[in-house]
Amino acid sequence: MPEADHEGKTYYTDVPQQGKLFFLKGSNELDWGMKNRLSRIFNPGDGRTVMLAIDHGYFQGPTSGLERIDVSIMPLVPEADVLMCTRGILRTVVPPSVTIPVVMRASGGPSILKELSDEEIAMAMEDCIRLGVCATAIQVFIGGEFESRSVVNMTRLVDAGLRYGIPTLAVTAVGKELVRNAQYFRLATRMCAELGAQYVKTYYVEEGFETVTASCPVPIVIAGGKKQPELDALKMAWNAIDQGAAGVDMGRNIFQSDSPMGMMKAIKAIVHGNETPEKAYDLYQTIKNKGN
Ligand code: 5RP
């Protein structure tokens, strides 16, 4: 008999094999590869994430703060849990030695000069796999002119992702004409989850945000939206987490700050350290005053 096949107590015949519930809301029935990728996006310790979103160029070109991603953004990347970007930026600017997970912007088409809801899937799943991404992201325009197409595009990306174990982040886009309130975001986030997205990005709303997170059966992360004063952005992040968000996918309120590194660390302190906005703001100011 081979040496490894000895009988004895190492078989623990009296110990039933344990199975654990997966830590992320709504994700227990997913396959191993998908859970493993989600565990790289969301910290298994607290179930939260700080995603740094720098994909804005895919429809608006060199956005303020993103003119030179190599110079201004790369120093922030080691501080983030996840980098959300386009394949163009990944291949041209981000060194392949970067080890944080990448969430890949996989939709596109119209620029800011045209109807934004007129998007298509703009990347093959094969290329996402080639790049080793942990999830894809696609815009969904509920109430937009091309609502149905954007929803169906999302379901196609979900199907492709399920084939290879790659989660889909549905990004609920907001049009100028749409009211941003809890009722709208309940509709948009729930539709994305019902149609298969493994997690959803939305905006924070002052009234009733906890009903948005409660009625969405998968994790929600919030976008930062337009640049606000730093303390206001930190309060928004704190409120969102307090009301059930599983993290942030934040761009402009970090990279357009006068201290992007200060904001990056302050947001992390809130999301992973349960720090108050005021304490996180002190941290931001300390880092800013050191010239970072
Ligand atoms: C662009 C996006 C952005 O990634 C998202 O809006 C996050 O960035 P910001 O915090 O600047 O809103 O999805 O459509």
Sequence-ordered SSE layout with sheet pairings:
Layout: H1 32-41, E1 49-53, H2 57-60, H3 69-73, E2 82-85, H4 87-92, E3 102-105, E4 107-108, E5 120-121, H5 125-130, E6 135-140, H6 147-164, E7 168-172, H7 182-194, E8 199-202, H8 209-215, E9 220-223, H9 230-242, E10 247-250, H10 252-255, H11 260-273, H12 277-289
Parallel strand pairs: 1-2, 1-10, 2-3, 3-6, 6-7, 7-8, 8-9, 9-10
Antiparallel strand pairs: 4-5
Helix pairs in contact: 7-8, 9-11, 9-12, 11-12
What would you say about this model in short?
The chain is α/β, with parallel strands linked by helices.
Span between termini: 64 Å
Count of alpha/pi helices? 12
Which class best fits the helix and strand makeup? alpha/beta
What's the average pLDDT?
95
Bound ligands, named by name, code or SMILES: ribulose-5-phosphate
Q: Summarize the amount of helix as a percent range.
A: 25-40%
Number of strands: 10
Order of helices and strands: HEHHEHEEEHEHEHEHEHEHHH
Give the low-pLDDT segments. Answer: none
Strand order of the largest sheet: 1-2-3-6-7-8-9-10
The biggest beta sheet is recorded as: 8 strands, parallel, barrel
Percent of sequence in beta strands: 5-15%
Basic shape: globular
Radius of gyration: 20 Å
